[in-house]
Amino acid sequence: MDEIDKAKGRLPLFTERMLRRERFAYQVRRMSLEHAAQMLIEGMRIEGLSQSYLDRLDKLFMAHVPAALRQRPLAKVSHKKLAASLAKLAVHGGNLRILKSFVGQIFTRAGEFDGSLSAFPEKLSEEFWERWERTNKLPFPELGQRRKDRYQTVFAKLEAGEDRWPEACCIRLFFILGAPLSKLMSAQWWQIIGDVWYPYLPEEKKYWFESREVLNSDALAIVQKLRTLSDQLSVGDRYLFPSLTNRGKPISSVYNLWVSTLNEIGHRNYPLGEFARSYRSPNNPSYAMTTVRQYGKMFREVGNAAKVSKLLYEARDNAIKSAI
């Protein structure tokens, strides 16, 4: 085929494809950050995200990313300047996580066409934490300096006991997910569809669909452990974290187990919320990258909100009927 193309004065198919890809990569590099953001938002609209949530993304991006940075070509956006701008923001932690993950996803998508852009999200996360630590007063700044293996010591102690496994698994999952602890303790099996946990029904929260939590491999392993233990011990199939003393109800607190765990390993008694936040974004660059990837999955595989809503209501109704 290449010989025929050569005889006819045409480029070989492989060469033509490579040139086409290089031209597109060149266009991506020259695209402004704002244009890329609008393209990503439009893609998410086509994929099914609610317009109100997309409006929220657009508002966060336009209000908190400086105009000078928004107008720069992707190849010339400075991760240091962007991180410095984001670290100074006085916005709710959830909004900051969404905005940073959204910006990271822009470059993750762009990196699929131009590999030189694929490292940007990780550089942004690392630089952001350094800047954020310098510009924000943390109640326990030493938590931000913890090595990953120090967290594993706490996790191992938590999971070593067998008599309080619901509380231990709940604490462990709390370190991974961003949902409120009270919502997590009352989580029910019908709220999980595939590898996604839906803490809210449409009637409970405006952004119920976007508030879902993608379960990564660590989270899924914990969920599987919970299912196995629940089946083995016959403690019911309604709650992920069933109370072992008040049958038919979920656990209502993890405080005692958390405090006793820290005491047993000779650790300072840090509040669980602060300790868990130090493991999650923005304190932990590697966790921040996990969040970017989870949001990326969410942005790409949003599914159909109406379909999921129907499935959730059906699952809830079936769970109620089986409990009668």
List keywords for this structure.
mainly alpha, 2 domains, 324 residues
How would you sum up this structure, described in words?
With 324 residues, the protein is mostly helical. It folds into two domains: 134 residues, no CATH class; 140 residues. Helices cover 62% and strands 2% of the residues. The longest helix has 19 residues. It starts with a helix and ends with a helix.
In terms of topology, how is this protein built?
Elements: H1 2-7, H2 13-30, H3 33-47, H4 51-64, H5 67-70, H6 79-87, H7 93-111, H8 120-135, H9 148-160, H10 165-176, H11 181-185, E1 192-193, E2 196-197, E3 213-214, H12 217-233, H13 255-264, H14 272-279, H15 285-300, H16 305-323
Antiparallel strand pairs: 1-2, 2-3
Helix pairs in contact: 3-4, 3-7, 6-8, 7-8, 7-15, 8-15, 10-12, 10-14
Rg over alpha carbons: 23 Å
- Unreliable spans are 282-292
Q: Tell me the total number of β-strands.
A: 3
Shape: globular
Head-to-tail CA distance between termini: 70 Å
Strand order of the largest sheet: 1-2-3
Question: Can you summarize the main beta sheet?
Answer: 3 strands, antiparallel
Total helices: the number is: 16
> Helical amount among residues, as a percent range?
55-70%
Mean pLDDT: 81
Reading the helices and strands in chain order gives: HHHHHHHHHHHEEEHHHHH
Strand fraction:
under 5%
Tell me the number of structural domains. Answer: 2
Q: By helix and strand content, what is the structural category?
A: mainly alpha
